[in-house]
């Protein structure tokens, strides 16, 4: 998984993020979707995300992971 540059990140549509309103947790690739799930769980456990936010990220990432590439 390559690092997203700011320009690449800015060019992604809101739908390519687990939390589109914050443009956080990119899920544009399978690798990033998998990473988003892991990071969301970690941040939830640290108290930085609500259960609802974690669940929204998981659902968005699961939809991306279910797609055929």
TrEMBL record:
Residues 1-42 are annotated as: Disordered. Residues 1-12, 20-31 have a biased composition (Basic and acidic residues). This is Uncharacterized protein. It comes from Gluconobacter oxydans (Gluconobacter suboxydans).
